[in-house]
Amino acid sequence: MRDSLIHSLVCPYCRGQLVWEFELRVGTEIEEADARCRSCEALYPTRKGVGAFLTSKETAKDMWEVADSQIEGLVMNEPKKIKRLLETPMAAMNPTDLFFRGLVLDSQGRYREGKEARDRALEGMYSPEQHACIRSQMDFVRKRLAGRPGPVVDLASGMGALLEVLLPVATQHLVASDVSPRVLTRDRSLLKDRVQGPGLSLLAFDARRTPFADRSVPTMVSYLGLANIQDPGDLLRELRRIVSGELCAISVFYPKEEGSNADTIRQFKLERLLYCESALRSFREAGFEVRVENAQTVLARPTPEGVILKGAQTDRLPVVETQVEWCTLVAG
Ligand SMILES: C[S@@+](CC[C@H](N)C(=O)[O-])C[C@H]1O[C@@H](n2cnc3c(N)ncnc32)[C@H](O)[C@@H]1O
């Protein structure tokens, strides 16, 4: 974590001032430190360069974490399947099995091999039109960042797909964030060779209760981050509190119709973020001015079930083939 960032950070729980004790600094990077809240005394450790600002042990359960927790169950209970996942030639594997092979490799700290498997899986999982649309949204955000002030916070960085595109060209300091410190440890290892310019910080926090002081984030971006936050509650009000400039959120919207997609959207309490009209209303109610940019309609198919891992699936949505709208929401 870059030391210049600490001036923007407060206790995510009570917003008290943080008192820092540094154990290891390398140049402008904080590798090991503890930050304690002067008011409520909560302790926030920075370990191996990843600052953890989590207010409770209860990590948010999103669709991604659900996929990750399937792996934990499998490693514990089905070692034979794990062996098959790791030993079957990649060319003979279905994209879902390949993706889970990547997660198993990640869980063993074999991040490069894990990424190779995950990248090949994603190639097979989505159509060329979907890939082109994703690329177009990321290019839109990349161009939009030109000349904007930093740091730029990437919300819910996950596998770091957006950071991969931004890091080689960004002139701003980038901040990767995710509710999972484990995800950020992997990202740090995989992204360090891509860092150019003013560098990369990594902060673990729940997007619904961030460690940023009021209006201390000049620019925020996210690639499918908002809709991966299950039970978002006051998420947008929290983002309105901290963002002083622009928020560019790459988003996918579903048609508002009853059926199995709607059931899943309801189950994860994502109605306000996965339907365009409701999302725009929610942004406005939170105090943002918001508009839709770079909109494109693309056919989305359900991701396949695993063959080795029968019943396993990477994406919960769509449940049925659906024309979805991709866009970048620009809010400020
Ligand atoms: C699928 S990823 C989004 C893709 C990612 N932005 C990228 O560029 O590759 C979703 C991420 O959201 C994170 N997440 C879920 N709930 C969260 C929360 N409440 N706060 C912050 N991150 C959260 C998950 O841990 C997961 O890594």
Could you please describe the fold and organization of this structure?
This protein folds into three domains: 50 residues, N-terminal domain of TfIIb (Single Sheet); 63 residues, no CATH class; 204 residues, 3-Layer(aba) Sandwich (Rossmann fold). It has eleven helices and eleven strands. The radius of gyration is 20 Å and the shape is globular. α3 packs antiparallel against α4. About 2% of the residues have low confidence. The longest helix has 18 residues. The protein has 332 residues and is α/β, with parallel strands linked by helices. It is 35% helix and 23% strand. The site of S-adenosylmethionine has 23 residues, from α1 and α6.
- For the largest beta sheet, what order do the strands appear in spatially? 1-2-3-4-7-6-5-8-9-11-10
Number of discrete domains: 3
Oligomer: single chain
Terminal Cα span? 26 Å
In the CATH scheme, the class of the largest domain would be Alpha Beta
Write down the Rg: 20 Å
Would you spell out the secondary-structure blueprint of this structure?
Blueprint: E1 18-26, E2 29-37, E3 43-47, E4 50-52, H1 63-77, H2 79-87, H3 95-107, H4 111-125, H5 128-145, E5 152-154, H6 161-166, E6 174-178, H7 181-191, E7 200-204, E8 217-223, H8 235-242, E9 243-253, H9 260-267, H10 271-274, H11 276-285, E10 290-300, E11 322-331
Parallel strand pairs: 4-7, 5-6, 5-8, 6-7, 8-9
Antiparallel strand pairs: 1-2, 2-3, 3-4, 9-11, 10-11
Helix pairs in contact: 3-4
S-adenosylmethionine binds at residues 60, 62, 64-65, 156-162, 178-180, 183, 206-208, 223-225, 228-229.
